[in-house]
Amino acid sequence: MQPDQLIAKFQQKDESAFAEIYARYSENILGVIHSVLHDQELSEEVLQDVFVKAWNNASSYNAQKGRFFTWLLNIARNAAIDKTRSKAFKNSKRNQDAAFFVDILEDKNNFSSKVDAIGIKKYIEVLEPICKKVIQLLFFKGYTQKETAEALDIPLGTVKTRNRICINKLRDVLGVT
Amino acid sequence: MIDIQEYIDSGVLELYVYGTLSEAESAEVSRLVALHPELKAEVEHIEIALQQLTSAAAPFTPSSFDSIQSKIQSTNGEDVIPLLPIDEESSQRPIKQISKRTIFISSLGWVATILLLVVLGYQFAGGKKLEDKITTLEREQILQQAKTDMAEEELVKANEMLDILRTKDIISVPLGAQEISPEAYASIYWNKETDKAYVDVRGLPTPPKGKVYQLWSLTLDPLTPTSMAVLDQYDANGTQLFEVNNPNASEAFGITLEPEGGSASPTLEQLYVLGVVEP
Fold first, then answer.
1. Which of A118, A155, B211, B256 is the most buried (most CB within 10 A)?
2. How far is B213 from chain A (nearest CA, A)?
3. Interchain CB distance below 8 Å, A105 and B135
4. What ipTM was assigned to the predicted interfaces of this complex?
5. Range of the structural domain that residue A106 is part of
6. Cα torsion at A81, A85, A90, A91 (round to 10°)?
7. Percent of chain A scored above 70 by pLDDT?
8. Span B228-274, pLDDT tens digits
9. Are residues A26 and A82 located together in one domain of the fold?
């Protein structure tokens, strides 16, 4: 459920509402940022920038245009991609080849979060390689359908439906149906 | 009035939550979501799943809200200290006569400043162009990397499949076209030892919307069909080779076109291919 009242208060610059928004979404946003940057320090820095930006531009969120989660996602992806152009990122010498969210999930030993760790790991085992790639590009990197089709060399018309099949599998495993 | 289920199945809601639709498309989805509770529920489910996924992708717990709070307070407009203190004495001091020479010198300063700005502007534009170019190149590199990864995985899959098909116990059964689609063909590779069969359906036409292919094992005397599999992952499976269990004592195999979800018994008018197992 989207916490409409909380968002309204946040837009009126209520700091306690902001604190709650942060508690609710900061881990999600960090997951997105880290899947782009793969660097703990930089990810933490960008995470803070994203929430400061969200606060400063709170009034620009419009429920008629989309979900609040989506609005935050877009700020986060843009900030993370901007960061990849920075000197600090280029100097961090991260292994750019392993740029998939599944790598993080597979490496992650410490599931401190509220998420069902076993469910997610199970999901990774079930998911076909094509699904991992489609979700990585479309969701985590914010590629358009066309860019995704070109990157994966699959027909443009099938991107949307493939992605749905993949998300449905995820939902099955997580029990979100 | 839109067909709700069809709209959901199109996958547009996922992209809506991802934020990868155009602004106009997004606004249209928002409008429909507000009108139809089924759409709203679906969007919320997608969002929950993505929240779990992204939480799991967070490699550590984010720092506490305090770190953010200190940042937003320092940028709070009311706390800004004026740049220069207002000095009462100096503001009341009479303005001195300004000589022409002072005007000339100070305007020289302005000219120099403007020149400098122009030069800097050019350099900045050049730098920006270079940066854009680098970004494009980086993006291309990512695309290429993804393509290579895909190709490698496909090669591994293809090799695995080849190994399976080369097993000595495998029985190969070609399925020939029937009246309904004279160009169609398919093949079954059946390993009786492992009770596994592999179906190659590349030679079948793409099924129309709402229809799926269903594979049947047949015994001939009397003619008894047993459903082996509904081939409904048709679109998602790039190789169009399906692995299915076949513990049956099959004497023949057939593939029919059935409504989504498959049927209890084959629709024989929709029999696309058929082949007999050589004894």
1. B256
2. 18
3. no
4. 0.90
5. 100-174
6. -110
7. 80
8. 988 877 654 456 778 889 988 899 999 999 998 888 899 988 999 99
9. yes
